[in-house]
Amino acid sequence: MSTEVRVPTLGESVTEATVATWFKKPGDTVAQDEMLCELETDKVTVEVPAPAAGTLAEIVAQEGDTVGVDALLASISEGATDGAAAAPAAKADAAAPADSGSSESIDVMVPTLGESVTEATVSTWFKKVGDTVAQDEMLCELETDKVSVEVPSPAAGVLSEIVAAEGTTVDAKAKLAVIGGSAASAAAAPSAGSESHAAQPAAASGSKPDVEDAPSAKKLMAEKGLSADQVTGSGRDGRVMKGDVLAALSAPAPKAEAKAAPRAPVPAEDASREERVKMTRLRQTIAKRLKDSQNTAAMLTTYNEVDMTETMALRKEYKDLFEKKHGVRLGFMSFFTKACCHALKEVPEVNAEIDGTDIVYKNFVHMGVAAGTPTGLVVPVIRDADAMSFAGIEKAIAEKGKRARDGKLSMAEMQGGTFTISNGGVYGSLMSSPILNPPQSGILGMHKIQDRPMVINGEIKIRPMMYLALSYDHRIVDGKGAVTFLVRVKEALEDPRRLLMDL
Questions:
Q1: pTM as predicted
Q2: Where in the chain is the domain with CATH 4.10.320.10?
C-alpha cells in the first residue's frame, strides 16, 4: 500500500510553488509528520510533512520543479520496511517506563504559529520545573505579532526542563521544554539537559552550517550578481530561498536611522513612582503598522453625519423577532456593514489596493471589523460580507468578537480584509480620524449617537445623530469618490429600505 504526498494549501491567491529542498531520498525510512521537503512560494516557505510512516518510494517533483496546489510530490510505501514502524520508538530512545527505571523524555516544541509568522515571545509559563502535568494541560503562552498561542503538554509526565524562559524570543521550530516520564527522570534532566543546551549557543555562535541554498535562489543570485553573504536566509538552517533574494534586491539602501530624542531627566521623587513595562509584541506591531500606514499612504479623512432615526426605529421594531428567529441580537453593525457593501459597489476604488504600479480591484468584500481587546486592537475579517444576510453578519461579528476578546483568533482570521469599519462610539467617541489598515484604501469610523437639534423641513427637531468619518488613500481614491461613498452610506442608513431595493 502506498500513500501519495501532495502539495498542501499554499495560502490565499498562491497557486504554485517551487520545490526547494528534499530532506529525504528514495529508500529512506520516514516517520509520520517528519519533514520531507521544503516548497518555496513568492511569499513564504512551506514545509511538507510525511502523511504516514513508511519508506519514501519515489520522488516525482525534483528540486527546482514548479508545482501547483495538490500536485503529486512523492509516494510513501507503507509497511515496506519495519524501520518506519520502529522509527518513532527509536526516536523516543525506547524510553517507556520500565523496571530498569528509565523513562521517556518528550520535547515540547513551538506549535504552528500561522502563515508568515516566524517567531514568538514566551510570555508566561503556567508550570515550573518539577511540576506534574497531564496530557494537553497548558504549559505556557506564546505571544506573536498578532495573537497569543497556548502550548499544551504533548504527554503526561513531569516538566523536567524549561529551555525557553519567559521573555525569550523563539523561532517556529524551537524547543520550549522537556517532559519526563517520571519524577526520577525529572530530577536527572536539569543537570544533563543544561549541559547540552549550554553547548548549543556556543555552536550557534560559530560559523553558519554548510547548507544547500534553494536552486531557484542560487540561479537568481547568479543572474543578479549577489553572493550568499549578501542575503539573509529564512529557510531551514538559514537556507537562502528565492523570496530572500527578491527581498534583498528590493531592499532600499540602508539609511542612518533617526534616533529618538533622549528622555528628559526625571526628578528623583518622581522616578520612584514610575513603572516601566516592556511593550508586548502585539503593541509593538500595532505601533509599527500604524506609523507605516502614515508614512506610506496619502491619507485623508472626509466627514459627514447621519440621522439614525429610521435605522433605530427599524431595529426597535424587529429586534425581538430577529433574535427569536436567528438566535442573535440585531445590532447596528449589520446595518453599517450592509450600507458599506452597497456603497463599495458604486465606488470600487475604496475597496481596492495598490500593488506597485497596479491597482487591484476586489469584486468581493472581506470586511474587517476593528475590535478592542485587553491586549490591544485587532481586526478580524468577515469574508464575503457582501453576500451575507443581516443575521449572518451579526453572527459572524459576535463570534469573531468573542474569539478576539479571548485571544483565540488565528492569523488567517485577520488576513485578507478589503475594507474596515471601526466603531469608536462604543467608547463614547464623538469624532475621530481613523487610520488606514494597510494595504486597504479605506476605513469607516463610526461614533457615538447623540441627540442634537436639527432643522427638518424648516422646523427644529431633536434627532439621534452620528458623525461618520472615512479615511482613504488619496493615491487611489479621489475626493469625489470618497465623498460619494460616505453620502451613499448616509442615504442607506437614513432610509434602510434603499438596501432592500438596491438603490
A1: 0.50
A2: 215-246
